[in-house]
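Quick start: what a row looks like.
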Amino acid sequence: MSDNPNPIEIDEISKAYLEYLENYTNRNWDKMVDKFSSAMTMFGTGIDENAFCIEDTLNLFKREYKQTGGIKYIVKALEVFPLSDSLAYILAIIDMWFDCPSGIYDSSNNRTTAILKKEDGEWRIVHGHWSQPTSEQEEGESIPLKALKQRNKKLLKEIEERTREIEEQNRKLTCLNSTKDRLFSIIAHDLKSPFNSFIGFTDLMLANFDKNYSNPDYFKMRLGILQENAHTLYNITENLLDWSRSQCNEIVVNKRDFNLYDIVNHQIQIFDQQIGKKGIFIQNLIKKDTIVRSDIDIMAIIIRNFISNAIKYSSNNQVVTISCDQLNSSTNIIIQDQGIGMSEEQLHKLFIDFQSTPGTNNEKGTGLGLKICRELIDRIDGRLEIQSVQGKGCKVIMTLPNP
């Protein structure tokens, strides 16, 4: 052949190879084989794909046909190098995607070389050499089927895990939406009611001021009711703020050592007015030198809510005790009252939704405080246990881990 080969001849060689490629990828067996020389040999992509006669070559192609389906491809580069009037060398770079039972196998940048021979006026492949086998391939595989199956199995597992995560997130989102709706209902009802009472009494007092301004009993009684409403509003607002902070992850846990007796005493003093009104006696039985490690601000919120509940559900002149048991690995803080207690059904539903029962003096609540306590106890790695018998009081046990 001359140094400047005939472009028409090169086009014929390219066309012959591309016709083989099209029939091979579309699994047109007879048309593909028609492009093979009767003396075709090959080195394939499998570890054992070495064929030195046409029979062995065809057997290897048959094996690959069984292992894979159709193939999509893109020819990125193809060069023809004529060797003589009847021989040519082809170099091609092809991206290929094999359709396998276990998924798509991506064979990008597949290096293909082939020698074509002109026989009876037609260019046919006399030798083919495809990309080397990957490190994942095993003997008997034209492509790494086992590795692909394992990879897809791993991918499927990841998808299943991600699906479970999404389902759990959806469940939590549904729960949060339900909580939000209930919270708005609480805000609308439980905040509105004491405000209406507050406004009503102040309007009445102003309307009758000239008539009753010299009657201290008149004002004392109504100021007492206003004070009670103010405490109710304050407690509800405080719980709403604590709850919103916990939901927005604005509460940062900062554990340090502090005196438990002092923090309990301080929380008891906050309720002096309510304690005096009911004639309740609260005993702080914690030793004065008791030191625990936790977040002091979170502990104040929790203890305050538990004391508030104990007062709310205690009858006049009853006793509430607050004690502490320090063990080797944990500390138990116990708040016990002699109040109305709860039934087994009430205990079971305690944390399912916002539950609130009027107190012994018809004190109102939202049920939000107990929910806050449980969430905050989780934040400080504690545990909460509530024991109660209807008509015999309630015992709250909060367990903190010792450092």
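That is the whole record. The CA atoms of residues 212 and 218 lie 7 Å apart. The chain has three domains: 7-143, 164-250, 254-403.
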